[in-house]
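Quick log. Single chain, no ligands specified.
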Amino acid sequence: MSNTEYYAHSTACIDQPCTIGRGTKIWHFCHISKGAVLGEGCILGQNVFIAGDVEIGDNVKVQNNVSIYTGTIIEDDVFLGPSCVLTNVSNPRSQIVRHSLYEKTVLKRGATIGANATIVCGVTIGRYAFIGAGAVVSKDVPDYALMTGVPARRRDWMSRHGIPLPEPDSEGIMNCPESGLRYREDESRQLRCIDLDEDEALPVELSKGETSYREVRK
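-> predicted structure:
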């Protein structure tokens, strides 16, 4: 199925009415439910399920075998790794109907959810946070935090480029080893990029990565 706005593979099931933005690509065996909203330039890999009333922003990349349930809000530029898990009821029972009790889960702009990670419902994942593969998140996550383990704990701060930040210098500034962008904690101890507004897109010259996480961690 395709039209002038978006592309959907012939095996995809798209229930109407729903909203799908320009340039979005929906691949094999995906199911988009009635009432779902997808932004522009998104990519849904194979076997992705989007429930009704889910809100997804622009430029969101969802890898294979991910289900996104009612109650989830995903902002722009989020990455969801293969087979990561999102939930919407914290105390499910087969015999108890809790459709009116779906809990709100928010993935804020630029966040990354690693492969096979689990996000327990009712939490907010901060801007540009990075959830490592296989981690289990049951509490809110600060902006730019690298979270790993079960339960997930903050291991480092991560730059917008997905590179661990070094210890702060004498002025409290941390420089991203890849981009050179500078970061510092504000008065509320939230990490902020001091060279770009949090709502700005990356400049074109900084949008192509040159360094892997493993290279930095050696």
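DSSP finds one helix and 25 strands in the chain.
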